[in-house]
Amino acid sequence: MASQQSGLRHRTQQEQDQSTLDSSVQQAVRKNGGFISNPFWLLVIGALAAYAFHHFLLGPVPGIPGQVVLTPEQLKQYGAKSGSATLYLAVLGQVFDVSRAQRIYGVDGSYSFFTGIDGSRAFISGIFNETGLTDDVTGLSVEDYNGLVEWRDFYHKDYTYVGRVVGRFYDQRGNPTQAVEAVEEGARQAVLDRKALKEEEKKIPTCNSKWSQKDGGMIWCKVGYPRKTFVKQRGSESQFRCACHQDVEHNDKKQLYKDCEASATSCITSPPAK
Ligand code: HEM
Ligand SMILES: *[C@@H]1O[C@H](CO)[C@@H](O)[C@H](O)[C@H]1NC(C)=O
Hints:
Blueprint (H helix, E strand, L loop, with lengths): L1 H31 L6 H19 L2 E2 L2 E7 L1 H5 L11 E4 L2 E4 L4 H4 L14 H6 L16 H17 L1 E6 L12 H26 L4 E5 L3 E5 L4 E6 L9 E6 L8 E2 L10 E5 L4
Parallel strand pairs: 2-5
Antiparallel strand pairs: 1-2, 3-4, 4-5, 6-7, 7-11, 8-9, 8-10
Helix pairs in contact: 6-7
Bound molecules: protoporphyrin IX containing FE (HEM) and 2-acetamido-2-deoxy-beta-D-glucopyranose.
Protoporphyrin IX containing FE binds next to helix 4.
C-alpha cells in the first residue's frame, strides 16, 4: 500500500516534468518552426533514441536474440533493496529473473542479499555479508568452479534467463571473458577428475575407515594393504586417498602410513583420546 502511494506520487512528479518539457518543446517549435514541428520527424528521432538506448545500454547479446546486457548499475535497480517488484540476480555474470520467488528473494526473504548483484563467490563460501557477496571467484578449487556452474544450471532450470551483466565475466558487448572461460574449464576438469577417481576406485578400492573422538581414527583393508594413494589430478595435485593395494610394494605414489608396516592390513591414523 505504501509503495503504491509513493508510486502514484512518483507518477504525478513525472507528469509535471513531462508538461514542462512539452511546453519548452512547444516554445522551441514556435521559435524554429522547420522540420522539428513535423510530427513525423519527432517520431523518427524518438525511435532512433529508443533504439540507441536499447542497443547501447541494454544491448542484445550477439548471436543470442532476446537477451540483454546490463551494467552493474542497471542490475542493482532490480535488487530487493531498491524496492523493485522485478528481482534479478546474477551468477557467473548471467542474469536471472527470480521475481516469482518473492518469499525467498524479496526484501524480507532469506536470500534477498543475492538480488541486484553478482555474488557468485557467496554461493560457494556461504559468507553472505558485503565481503562475501562478490563476483571475485579467484583462488577457488575446480570443485568449487563446478559448484558455481551447477548453481548457474539451477537458475537456468528454475527461473527465467534475462541476459548478462557487464564486468568480470562478460565484456561491454556481452561476450564471455577469460574469467568465465577459466571457471568453465575448471568445472569440466572437476568432472573429469571425478570420473577418473571413480575408475581408479574400481581398480584399487578405497580403504574402510572409522573415526571417533574416543577411539581415534583407523583405516583398514579386507583385501590388500592400505596406502596413501596419490592420483595426478590437474585441479588437486596434492590430494590423496587411502586405497587397498594388492601387493606390499610402496613408493611415492602409494606411501606407507606413519608407524604402519608394509604388511599391515590396518593402521591407526590418529590416537584415541586419553
Ligand atoms: C553455502 C551455503 C548456502 C548457500 C550458498 C545457499 C543458497 C541458497 C539459495 C540460493 C537458495 C534459494 C534457492 C531457490 O531459488 O529456490 C536457498 C534456499 C534454501 N536454503 Fe540455502 N544456502 C546455503 C546454506 C544453507 C543452510 C546451511 C541451510 C539450512 C540451515 C539452508 C536452508 C535453505 C532453505 C530452507 C532454503 C529454501 C528457502 C525457502 O524455500 O524459503 N541453506 N539456499
Ligand atoms: C564477513 O564475514 C566474515 C566471516 O564470517 C568475516 O570474517 C568478515 O569480517 C565479515 N566482513 C564484514 C564486512 O562484515
